Automatic annotation (TrEMBL):
Residues 575-602 are annotated as: Disordered. The gene is LTN1. Pathway: Protein modification; protein ubiquitination. It comes from Merluccius polli. This is E3 ubiquitin-protein ligase listerin. Component of the ribosome quality control complex (RQC). It catalyses: S-ubiquitinyl-[E2 ubiquitin-conjugating enzyme]-L-cysteine + [acceptor protein]-L-lysine = [E2 ubiquitin-conjugating enzyme]-L-cysteine + N(6)-ubiquitinyl-[acceptor protein]-L-lysine. Belongs to the LTN1 family. PANTHER family: E3 UBIQUITIN-PROTEIN LIGASE LISTERIN, ZINC FINGER PROTEIN 294. It comes from the Eukaryota.
Amino acid sequence: MGKVYDRSNVITRHLGVAEFIFLQSESTNERPLGKPSSSGRAAELLAREGGVVPGFVGFGSAVTPEPGYVPAVHGAEEIDVLVDADFRLVLRKMSKRDTVTKLKAIQEFGSMCQERDAEEVKGVLPYWPRIYCKISVDHDRRVREATQQAFEQLVLKVRRSLAPFLKSLMGHWLMAQCDTYVPAAGAACLAFAAAFPPNKQPEALSFCRDEILNVLQDTLLKETADTLSDPQCVPEEERETKFIRMVTSSLLGVKKLLHLLPDSDRDVLEDRLTQLISPAKFWKYSKHKTPQVRGALFEVVSALCQYTPGLVHKEAARASSAVLLGIDDTDPVVLPPLWEAVLHVVTTIPDCWTHVNARKGFLPKLWALLREGGGGMAKALHPNLMPLVSKLPQQVTEPALDFYTTFFTSLIQGLVAERAVSSPTESAAIVTAVVECMRFSVLQHTEEGEEQRKIQRMLISQQLLPLLESAVRKPSLQNGPLFLLVTEMLISWEKRAGLHGGDGPQDGPDVFKPLLGDFWEGLGLLLVGFVDTEEADEKALEGVATLLQVMRYPDKVTGRKQANKKKSVKICFSEDAESDGTEGGGPDTALEGEPQQEKAVGSLESERLEEVVCQLAQLCLVYVNEKQSERHLVLLALLLRSFHTPRVFTMLMESEGGEQPSAQQPSPPVVDLKNAAMRFLLERVVGWLSEDGRSHSHHLVDMIFSSLHCCSPQETTRILNHITTANAGPETLKSCRDWLKGSVLGERLLGLAEELCNAGRGHSTSSSNENTHSWTLISLVLSQHHNNEPLIGEVYLEKILEKLHATLSETKARSSHEGGMGPLICFICDVASTFYSSVTDCLLLASAEELLLTAFQITAQDHSNTHLSASVLSKLRGVCVAGVQALVQHSGDQLRESGFLCSAAVWAKRQLLTASLDVKSLQVLVSAVQSVVETLTTSPSQDLTLLTHFLSLLTPSQPEWTRIRQALPPQWMKSPLLSGRLRVTCDYPSIDVWKSTLSSRLPAHLCACALLGRVIQTAAVSRTDQQRADRSLYSELKYTVSELLYAVQWCVEMDVGLATVSQYNSLLTDWGLSGSLPGLVPVQDLLETLYTRSVAEGGLWSLCLERFLQTDTVATGATSNAIRKLYGDPGSWFPVSRAKLSTFQVLCPFMTREERRSVSSLATTGVINWQDNDDVCGCLALLLCCLQEHSPVQVEVLQAVLASMMEWRNSREDWFLFSSDLSKVSAEQLILTVEMMRFLSWLVTSSPSVLGGSQWDFLLCCMLAWLEVR
C-alpha cells in the first residue's frame, strides 16, 4: 500500500502539471523571415568605375532624344541581379510620356524607397540623377511635386550614399527649390533639408558650385524653348511655358546660390559670374514679356548688389539702366523686387545717375507712378520712397523747391486714384509715405537761408495743410493714420524746438519755432473756416473734432498707434533726437476721468493747440446762442470732451460778459461760483437740457461730465447729492427705474464686466486689487433686487452672468498654468456666492446654472491640471454650496432636466465612464459630488426626493454596468482557476493579457463603485434619524452594493502587490465601504441579487457570493432554509451550465448531506449514461464538487464512473485531447479534459483503494499522454 500511495503522489503532481499546461495554453505564430537584399553593390560598382557608365539601354521602343536609363556595362548580368526587379519596372514607367503613368510611377517609387531595405534602394542611385534631371522640370506640376517628394524618401533612406552623385544632381535640385509652383519648391526644400542640416547646406553648394553654375548658365544663355523640349512632340505653348519656368527658376537659383555660399566662394566664382551677367541676353530679361522673369531678374540684381558689389560696378551701366528706367513697371509680381533693386542700385552704385538721364528718363516715370497711387501697389511701393529720396544726389534734386513741390504734389495726388479711394490700406500707405518724406525733407532743410524757408513754407502751406483740409472733409482719411502721424511729427518738431524741456535736443530752435508758428496759424484759419458758417458741414465738424482729439491724446486713438508703426522699411531720422524709436511716446493717458491739472504724457505741449480750441469753442457758443445751431452744440460737446480745461471754461464764461447766474437759475450753495466749469454747467448746460423739443441730449450729458472733470471729488459728490435730493419725486423715481433697466446702463455694466474679466487675465494681483470697487458694483447690481425684480434689465443680468461663466470656463482650458487668473477667479466666486445667497429663484436663469455647473466641474477635476491654489478652490467650493443651498430652498422637490443637479450628475457619470482617472483624480471627483450630497441631505426643509433623483442620475444603467464590468482586466482569473476555487466559466484571454501590466489609471467600474458607495454612505450617515425609513435611498441600492462587492472581490483576486490595486483597496478600507455599505440593504435582498448574478454569469459573481456567505452578518442571519430558497429542489441544477456549476461549487458546503447525495446520484447517472447525455462535463464536475465535500459515495459508483471514462478512451478518444494542438481546441473540449484530470487526481488521493491494475494502467497512460501535449 505504501508503494501505491507513493505512486499516487507522483501521478497527482504530474496530473496537476498537465492541467496547468492546458489552462495556460496559447498559440504562437511563426513570423516569416524577410528576404535579404544586396543590391547596394550596384552603387559601389559605379563608384569604382568613377561614376561613368559606358552605355545605356532604353526602355521603350519609341525614338526619343533622351538616352535610356538602365545601364549596359560589362557584366550586365550582375547589374540585372543587383537592381531589384520592382525598381527596374517602376523606373521604366517613369520614362513614359503619359502623365498619369509617370505620376503613378513616381509615387510608387517614393513608397518603395520608404518601405524597402536601404541596400535595395542604394542600387538605384547610379541611375537616379539622369531620371531626376528630366522629370524635375516636367511640364506637369503634379509630376514635379511628386518627384521632390519621392526624392525626399530616397534621401532619407540612403543618407550618405548619395554623396558620389551630388554634382550631377545639385544644379537641377537648386532649380527645383526655386520652382514657380510653390508646393513643388517646398517639397524640394524639404528634400534638401533632409539631406543636409542648415549648417551643412553652404558646404554642399560649395562642393558643387561649378556644376550648379554650368546648369544655370546653360539654361539662361544657351537654351531655348525648342532645345529644352522636342518641337516634334511637344506643343509650342507647352514648350514656351516650360522655358519661361526654367528661366525663372534659374534666375532665382542664382540668387539662392549667392545667398547661401560663403564669402570666400563668392570671390572664387567672380569670373564665372562675370561670364553669366556680361552677355546682353542676361540683361534683356529685364524687358521680358513675362512678369515672373522680370521679377526674378531684379531679385538677382539685388543679390548681386548685396553679395558681389564689385561685380555690379563692372556692369553699372546695364544694371542702372535696367533697374532705374524700369520703375514704371507696376505688375504685382515685378514691383516689390524691382523697388528692392532700385534701393540696392542707388546705394551700391554711387555713379548710377551718370548712366541714366534722371530728368528725362527717371523722374517723369516716378511722377506718373506717384500720381497713379502706385498703380494699386502703394503698400509695396511707398515704404521705399523715403529711403529713395534720402539717396538722391543734389544733381537730381536741383532746384530743390521745384523737386519737392512736384514730388509731394504727385504723392498727395495719388490719394484720389481709384485704388487708393477704395482701399484703406492703400490710402494709409500713401499717407504714411507723405508724412515720412515730409519729416525727412524738413530735417534736410534746417539751415538758415531764404531758400530753406521757402521749402519749409511750401511744405506747410502748400502740402500739409491742404492735405489736412482734405482729410477733414473725407471720413475715409479721418479713419486713417494721417492725424496721428501729423501729431507725432509736430511733437518731434516741438522737441527739437526745445518746447519739451529736457525731453529732447534743441536742434535749431530758430528753425522749428517759426515752422510750428506757420503750422498753427494756418491750422487755426483752416479750422475756423469750417466752423464759422451757419450751414457748416456736419461731417467736416466731426473731422475737426477728431483731428483735435488725436492731437490732444495721440496715445489713445482707438488702438491704431501700434498698428500704424508696422512698416516695410525701418526708418531712423536721427540718432540723438529719436533714439527711443517712438516720438511722443509715453504712458497711456486716460481720455476721461483724469484731473485736468495733469498733462497727457506724449501729447503736444504747445499752447497754440489750446488757443485754436478756445477760438473754435467761442464760435460754437456764438452760433448756439444766436442761431440755436444744434451742429455747433454737438461740436462744442466734442471739443469739451477732449479739452475740459479751466482755460477753456473760463474763456467760455468770459465770452458771455461775466454775467452772474440769474434768479431763475440759482446756483446751489455747495458750488464755488469761482469755478468757471461749474458756472458753465449750471448757467448754460442745465438751460439747454430744459429746452423743449430737443430730440438728442447725449452730447449735453457729455458736457456735464466734462464740467465735472474740473471739480474735486468732494465737490462732485456734493453736487450729485444735491441733484438727488432736489429731484426725488415719484416721477423721478420712475425715471430712475426706467434708467436702471434701460439699455444704456445695461450695456455699460456689461462692458464693465467684460473689461474686468479681460483685465484679470494674466495680470498681477496688484492690478486686480485696483478693480475691487468695480467688482463690488457688479456684485451689487446682481444681488440687489426690488420687489423680486433685478435692478437692471434681466437680459443684461443674464449676459453678465454669461460673461462670468465664460471667463470661469477658461480655467478648465488653461491646464498648464494659472497665471494671473487666481485673483480674477476669486472675484467671480465672491460675486457668484453673493448672488446665489441673496436672490430668490436665482437658478431659474440658465446662465446662473451654467456658472454653478462650471464651478462644480472645476472643483471636481484633478487640481494638478488647473494648478489652482487652495484659497481659490475653497472659494469655488463655497460657490457650489451656496448654489445648491439656493436650489434646495427654492426649487421644492422638482428636478428640471436641464437644471444643475441633472447636469452635474450626468457630467460626473460621464467622467466615471469615459475619463481615465487615477486614485487622486477619483478622490477629487468623489469629494466634489459628496459635497453636493451633504448639502442636499442637511437641508432642514428638504426631504430625500432631490437626493433620490440625483443618485438615480448618477448611477449607471444596467447595460452600462455590464459594459464597464466586462472591461475590467481579466487577470483576476489566474488565482481562483489554478487554486480550483473557480470552475471555467468563460473563454480564456490570450497569453498577452497575462503578460501585460495594469496602468496607473483605474478601470471605470472601480471608479463608479467607489463614488456611489461613498455618496450613499454620506447620505445614510447624514440621515441617521430616519435610517430605518430611508434604508433604501433609491431603488438601485441593492444593485449598486452588489457592484461594489464585485469590485472588492476583483481587488482581492488581483495581485495585492500592484500599486493601483493596492491604493484603491486602501481607499475603500479607509472609507469603510465594504464593511458598512452592505448593512444598508436587507441580507435576503442582497443574497438573492448575488445568487441571481452568479447563476446567470458565474465567474467573479460566484466568488462574490462565496465571500458574502462567509461574512459574520450573513452567517448569523442566513439560515439553511434561506439559502435553500435560492435554488429550491436539487434537480434545479440540471441541466448544468457553466454559471450554475460555479454557483453550485460555492453553495455546496452549505447544503445538507441529503441534498448533496441527491445531486451526486443525478450526476453519476448522467456520467454513466453518457451516450444519451450532452452534458457529461457538467455532471462530472457536480459529482466532483460533492466528492470534495466528503459526500458518501459507494465504491461501485466510483468504479462505474471510472469504467465509463475508460470506455471513453476507446470510443471517444478526442475527449482526452491526446496529441492535440491546444491553441485550436475549444473551451468546452478543454474543460471536459480538465474535469477528467481533476476527478482522476481526487480518486488517487482520496480513494486509491478502488483502483485495480487495469485502472492504474489507464491512469498512467493518460498522465503520460497529457504531459506530452503542447
